[in-house]
Automatic annotation (TrEMBL):
Highest taxon, organism lineage: Bacteria
InterPro entries, sorted: AAA+_ATPase, ABC_transporter-like_ATP-bd, ABC_transporter-like_CS, ABC_transporter_ATP-binding, P-loop_NTPase
Residue span(s) of domain ABC transporter: 5-232
Originating species: Brevundimonas intermedia
Name of the molecule in the record: ABC transporter ATP-binding protein
Keyword terms, alphabetized: ATP-binding, Nodulation, Nucleotide-binding, Transport
Length: 316
């Protein structure tokens, strides 16, 4: 594996507050890597250190062979969390302007902008001003502006935030397209579903510390499978079955319960079900559920990805 990005024991301290602590991970060349964590976990701080927009307090970074993104800025595309393109420009002008900042001749920038806008279904928006575009359209234009110079490495900070499901899907396709063209993509998000669909690799961050690095499947494998069981069964009876790690009652009506049964690591659920039937338990329905990346995140970090950690918790 050739790494396009390596972090070794990187930390960021703001005054007395440790926002990023001893963080190490690698992003393989040509992969799509998700950098996941709730708001306040330290994602933006890390991305800004990688880009060279702020200094690391400690540690080593290697991006495309450089100690930060500054000296290789023309080979990197960046979509910041705070967005906004010049409101009076047309999308073509805005995209070409950003391309020119990365060394792309303006006439070539405009040519590529028109092509990319057409490809993204924004052909009709070409003549409008940026301020006249919907948020979803403007965000797509901003992503195009970040990649018009065909960067080798693309860094996107919360690219899905504020987009409706339709535009989120379009953005996922754009990200897949960038990787298919050979770029390495690192994007931050607190929404696990995007990462689950897109990523070759994920890095989970909680309160400034890495909680996991690996593939989506490897992350999910750290979490138990669930058995969704329906019937006139008490949680106590369910807890005595083999392979059961925990039981939660989801609902109860007239003694008929829906139980969420967490299986022990390595348990497949078949043993549990077999024993339930052999013991004569009143099973009326069941479903085996694989853990999601969201389940894995909670299991690995104790944090909820949709809820920000408070700074006091984060500094512990
Ligand atoms: N310049 C700064 N000075 C002091 N504290 C900061 C500064 N920048 C960030 N922080 C704090 O560092 C922590 C991590 O922030 P960061 O923005 O890196 O997290 P994040 O995971 O990107 O979250 P978000 O998506 O909300 O930006 C937060 O508690 C934040 O308040």
């Amino acid at each position: 594996m050739t790494a396009a990005l390596t972090l070794e024991s990187v930390s960021k301290r703001y005054g007395g507050f440790d926002a990023v602590r001893d963080l190490s991970f690698q992003v393989p060349k040509g992969s799509i890597c998700g950098f996941l964590g709730p708001n306040g976990a330290g994602k933006t701080s890390t991305l800004r250190m990688i880009l060279g927009l702020q200094e690391a307090t400690a540690g080593r970074i290697d991006i495309l062979g450089a100690p930060n993104g500054r000296s290789v800025r023309d080979r990197i595309g960046f979509l910041p969390e705070e967005r906004g393109l010049y409101k009076k420009m047309t999308p073509v002008e805005a995209i070409a302007f950003f391309g020119a900042l990365k060394g792309l001749p303006t006439h070539e920038g405009k040519k590529r902008a028109k092509l990319l806008l057409e490809q993204q279904g924004l052909g009709a928006a070409q003549k409008k001003k940026m301020k006249e575009l919907s948020k979803g359209m403007a965000q797509k234009v901003q992503l195009i502006a970040a990649v018009v110079h065909k960067p080798e490495f693309v860094i996107l900070d919360e690219p899905f935030s504020g987009l409706d499901p339709m535009n989120q899907q379009g953005l996922e396709e754009m990200i897949r397209g960038l990787a298919a063209d050979g770029a390495t993509v690192l994007f931050s998000t607190h929404v696990m579903q995007h990462a689950e669909r897109l990523c070759d690799k994920v890095v989970l961050l909680a309160r400034g510390k890495k909680a996991f690095e690996g593939s989506v499947d490897e992350a999910k494998a750290t979490s138990p499978r669930f058995l969704d069981l329906n019937g006139a069964i008490t949680p106590e009876a369910a807890a005595t079955l083999p392979g059961v790690a925990g039981v939660e009652t989801l609902s109860e009506t007239d003694g008929v319960r829906r139980l969420k049964i967490a299986l022990a690591p390595g348990a497949g659920g078949q043993e549990t079900l077999k024993a339930a039937f052999l013991n004569g338990l009143d099973v009326r329905g069941f479903a085996l559920k694989e853990p999601t990346l969201h389940d894995a995140f909670i299991g690995l970090t104790g944090d909820h990805p949709d809820q920000p950690a408070t700074p006091s918790e984060a500094s512990q």
